[in-house]
Write a structure and sequence with these properties.
Blueprint: E1 16-21, E2 25-30, E3 59-63, E4 69-73, H1 82-94, E5 101-105, H2 127-153, E6 162-164, E7 167-169, E8 175-177, H3 178-185, H4 214-219, E9 234-239, E10 247-252, H5 254-257, E11 262-269, E12 274-280, H6 283-291, E13 294-298, H7 307-318, E14 323-328, E15 342-349, E16 361-366, E17 371-375, H8 380-391, E18 398-402, H9 418-429, E19 435-438, H10 441-446, E20 454-462, E21 468-477, H11 487-490, E22 491-492, E23 495-496, H12 497-500, E24 513-518, H13 534-551, H14 556-563, H15 569-586, E25 594-602, E26 605-616, E27 619-630, H16 637-651, E28 663-664, E29 667-668, E30 688-692, H17 707-722
Parallel strand pairs: 4-5, 9-19, 17-18, 21-24, 27-30
Antiparallel strand pairs: 1-2, 2-3, 3-4, 6-7, 7-8, 9-12, 10-13, 11-12, 14-24, 15-20, 16-17, 16-19, 20-21, 22-23, 25-26, 26-27, 28-29
Helix pairs in contact: 1-2, 2-3, 8-9, 13-17, 16-17
């Protein structure tokens, strides 16, 4: 019997379990055997490790006696809208009264693992795509059990019953609410198979539904991980080494300990090197004390990174082929192309920080034989295990609460769980006292885990028809997956698929395509940035394709449609829709304005983009952006629109004049938003129109696909205004 939401040690009873407790109502649990996969394209299912088959069941649906229906969301909510979209899927199949639906973020537990990735996580734009079938089946099976309970009560058949708005209706005008039927339904067997609704039967899915968390965000009642305040809680900050991997040699902390409210100062181990933890009653005294620390650092054996040296090294590497990602056609085709028919292009992409608005944080309470954790985690499984490991506990001895998070962009999905490890290490010393670790903005901007810097060298040979006859492409950049749990199925023959995705697997029909990659070792921690490799590969591909279209004197949309493979429907359909949606304004641009176009497919979603750009004060001014997207069935079109509008803004980060992380003698030169400048409102489009290709196909990702298309579209417009090509980001002037 389940008596409380946090009772996770349940017996294992097959595919699905239903239990009932008087205080809790009907609890429905589902186990789906996960199919391990990866976020990046180009990694086959056969490369994945085998899935575990011993996941215990846990509650997804709770029908309370008051009629409220609590739906557990197996993801982190940090702005993408899954706390509304996933409950919509379940509630629609269940015929639940939407006005009585409550969404709750599920804690860390095996049952909440992503059915595709095999871990509980948010990433790869897979939240809706991977849980679409899972949540629909949950809703349909719950409904079937409620109907069966009603039919038995009325001595009739389920076929004679219907459901609507959390009520079962039977023959002779009989009716019963879901809450009234919950106890009887809990005793019913779980159906092995259920019929899912067809498109015409759906009441919620496909409709614009306001988000369940909107009001709480607007009135300030919604609490994030940073807002957590437990009785007796202490706050900790950590002084990290100025050069990645350095160790503490000597600490002078007399002045720091004199700050009122400081409780402890001590050295802690980090994934690489060590740091100094400062614990105080509140955040401000902890930070002030840290500022007064005098730390001598040991740099022995560390090679400090320097941006200028790295660019020279990367450029030299690009002059020779690396590990082969794809080799198609004649490898010597380029040699037969005349110099006048060649484009040789070199691209520079610097390190980029994620800089989520809510600083990184984790709260841990360790009582010796048990621990409790509160964190806005993208990788609950990894973070849960990491805390248990640090504390010397089994994962079953650690309760991990998923908190609301203020942005992530990949930064809260860290394979080494360094923030959680730091927090657990501190809590272990403060046994019995809850401690909240806070990374300040400066900690995050200077603390590593950046999008890797990349250098691309591309040679394009142009045929007599204006189409590319040969394409030779070398990418240089650190691997994201080597040395992580994802290496076994994300790296093959020395090629990290996440580095070349969007180029090696391009949908353009390039007969002689050769892509290779170098993965240099650099003393800078790196991490996937929103849309991962597509951020830089799409920029390279789409600016070069646009340059080819200009040389061929063809319309940029028509050129792309001609060059795309016939099977590239996910791009052809958005391009067709974009052409129609922008036909009027593209042909009526004011003087000094130009249109820029791009398209790209990532995470199963095709996106086409057109922007209206002028130049103001030597910076691009984006007057309008029109997006056409093929994402399969749009579960909540309102969320899709907001995802693309926000993704366009985020994608402009790599264009900003100060949007780069640079290193000098191993130290990061930027500290906060004064040095690493995000897009301001004036940098973003005045209007963003989103058009969704009608579809009944299963949903694909929407969180990351808007990011790759905006930057190339803007610089393609600038090229038409200035006659120059922009290959080094960020833009320092137009």
């Amino acid at each position: 019997m389940v008596t409380a939401r946090n009772d996770r040690e349940l017996s294992r009873r097959g595919f699905m379990r239903v239990s009932f407790a008087a205080a809790s109502g009907l609890l429905v649990s589902l186990y789906l055997e996960p199919r391990f996969g990866v976020a990046q394209e180009g990694v086959s299912q056969s490369q994945a490790p085998p899935a575990r088959k011993d996941f215990p069941p846990d509650a997804f649906v709770n029908i309370r006696p008051d009629g409220k229906i609590v739906i557990q969301v197996n993801r982190l909510e940090f702005g993408q809208g899954v706390q509304t979209a996933l409950p919509m899927l379940l509630a629609d199949e269940m015929d639940a009264d939407w006005a009585n639906v409550i969404a709750d973020l599920a804690p860390a537990a095996d049952v909440y693992k992503d059915p595709m990735f095999g871990i509980q996580m948010v990433g790869g734009s897979g939240s809706i795509a991977h849980s679409y079938q899972q949540y629909r089946e949950l809703g349909a099976k719950t409904r079937a059990m409620l109907v069966a309970a009603a039919a038995e009560r009325w001595n009739t058949t389920p076929e004679q019953c219907r459901t609507e708005a959390s009520v079962v209706h039977g023959p002779g005008g009989r009716s019963a609410t879901y809450a009234e039927l919950a106890s009887d339904a809990a005793r019913k067997p779980v159906p092995a198979n259920v019929r899912l609704k067809n498109a015409t039967e759906l009441r919620l899915v496909g409709k614009k539904v306001k988000r369940l968390d909107s009001r709480a965000k607007c009135d300030g009642t919604l609490k994030f991980g940073l807002d957590l305040d437990l009785p007796g809680m202490k706050v900790a900050v950590v002084a990290h080494p100025p050069v990645f991997g350095a160790r503490v040699k000597r600490i002078v902390d007399d002045e720091a300990r004199s700050v009122e409210g400081v409780r402890d100062i001590f050295e802690i181990a980090l994934p690489k090197g060590s740091g100094v933890a400062v614990v105080a009653d509140k955040f401000w005294p902890a930070k002030q004390a840290r500022n007064r620390l005098k730390i001598e650092w040991d740099m022995t054996g560390i090679e400090p990174a320097d941006s200028s040296d790295l660019w020279a090294r990367y450029k030299q590497l690009s002059l020779s082929p690396g590990a082969v990602a794809v080799s198609k056609g004649d490898p010597k085709a380029m040699d037969t192309v005349a110099a006048k028919d060649r484009i040789v292009a070199e691209y520079e992409f610097p390190f980029l920080a994620h800089a989520p608005m809510e600083p990184l944080n984790t709260t841990v309470r360790f009582d010796g034989d048990r621990a409790e954790v509160w964190a806005g985690s993208q990788f609950q499984t990894f973070d849960h295990i990491a805390v248990a490991e640090v504390l010397g506990l089994k994962p079953t001895q650690v309760t991990f609460h998923t908190e609301m998070a203020g942005g992530g962009f990949g930064r809260r999905a860290v394979p080494d769980s360094h923030v959680q490890r730091e927090a657990a290490t501190i809590a272990k010393r403060l046994r019995g006292t809850p401690v909240k670790l806070v990374w300040t903005r400066e900690d995050d901007v200077q603390g590593g885990y950046y999008r890797p810097m990349h250098f691309h060298r591309v040679e394009v040979g142009i045929g007599s028809d204006g189409l590319p006859a040969a394409w030779r492409h070398v990418v240089v950049g650190q691997s994201l997956l080597m040395g992580t749990a994802f290496e076994a199925f994300g790296v093959k023959d020395g090629v990290d698929a996440s580095t070349v995705e969007g180029a090696a697997d391009t949908h353009y029909n390039l007969a002689n395509l050769h892509v290779s990659v170098h993965h240099p070792k650099v003393n800078v921690p790196v991490l996937w940035w929103r849309s991962v490799g597509h951020t830089h590969t799409a920029f390279v591909m789409e600016t070069l394709i646009d340059e080819l279209a200009m040389r061929a004197r063809m319309d940029p949309i028509a050129y792309r449609r001609k060059l795309l493979k016939p099977e590239a429907k996910k791009l052809l359909r958005p391009l067709e829709l974009l052409d129609t949606a922008t036909a009027v304004w593209r042909n009526r641009l004011p003087k000094g304005h130009a249109v820029g176009v791009s398209c790209h497919e990532s995470f199963g979603t095709g996106v086409a983009c057109a922007v209206d750009v002028s130049i103001e004060n030597k910076r691009p001014r984006i007057h309008r952006a029109t997006i056409a997207v093929d994402c399969g069935l749009a579960v909540n079109p309102l969320t899709v629109e907001s995802q693309f509008q926000a993704g366009v803004g985020f994608g402009l980060t790599q264009l900003m004049a100060k949007g780069a992380i640079t290193l000098k003698n191993g130290m990061v030169e930027q500290r906060n938003f004064d040095g690493f400048v995000p897009p301001y409102i004036v940098d973003t489009p005045i209007a963003v129109d989103v058009h969704i290709v009608p579809s009944t196909e299963a949903p694909t990702g929407c969180g990351e696909p808007p990011v790759p298309v905006i930057s190339p579209a803007v610089v393609n417009a600038l090229a038409r205004l200035t006659g120059k090509r922009y290959r080094s980001l960020p833009l320092v002037g137009v």
